[in-house]
Amino acid sequence: MRTNTFGTLKWDINELAASMHISESEALEFFQDGRRLAFLLEYRIANVFGGKRSDSERLPYDVVCGEGHKWEVRSLTKSGLHFAPSNTIGSGRSFSEDALYSKLDSNYGYVICDAMTFPHVTYWCVSVETIRAWYDAGKLGCRAHVSHKRALQLLCEQFDG
User: In terms of CB atoms within 10 Å, which of 60, 83, 89, 92 comes out highest?
Assistant: First the structure.
């Protein structure tokens, strides 16, 4: 799996809804929640890139691709995108720049998946060098979190030149 690539993962929303015995709108609502979609994305990304999902949630990466590179898979949701480790995000937790840099050092890149486009999820493979440059230039804010709109702007700049 190479950095600076992108693609689309596709699901048939009719088949999903039918197999789950819920309406299409309920299936969309369910899967556009990045927390629910995250595990499914990890399996799909691993399969698409000839790799495997990590053996533990406690590891600093989600997928090892066929070439042996470690990747973090992140959902871009209506509330935005976090680059910091999950254990530093949320109520009662505090951001740590050291933890962010450690996470970046442990991965080859991030696969950013736009959950809001489900059932056709656009994904981008972004190198940790690019993410580090964004953070160091202040483009990710002080907590390495950006809005959905800002994430798409950064990705467009990176991929459309």
Answer: 83
Q: Residue 98's domain is classified under what CATH number?
A: 3.40.210
Query: In terms of C-beta density within 10 A (0-12 exposed, 13-18 middle, 19 or more buried), how is residue 108 classed?
Result: buried
What is the tally of structural domains in the chain?
Answer: 1
Q: What is the pLDDT of residues 130-152, one digit of tens each?
A: 999 999 999 999 899 999 999 99
pLDDT in tens, 1-54: 667 789 999 999 999 999 999 999 999 999 999 989 999 999 999 999 999 999
What does the alpha-carbon distance between residue 32 and residue 12 come to, in Å, rounded to a whole number? 14
Q: CA 45 to CA 72: how far, in whole Å?
A: 10
Q: Residue 6: which H helix or E strand, with range?
A: strand 5-10
Identify which of 130, 154, 116 has the alpha carbon closest to the alpha carbon of residue 34.
116
Q: How far is CA 49 from CA 6, 111, 126, 142, in A?
A: 12, 11, 14, 32
Range of the domain at 81: 5-160
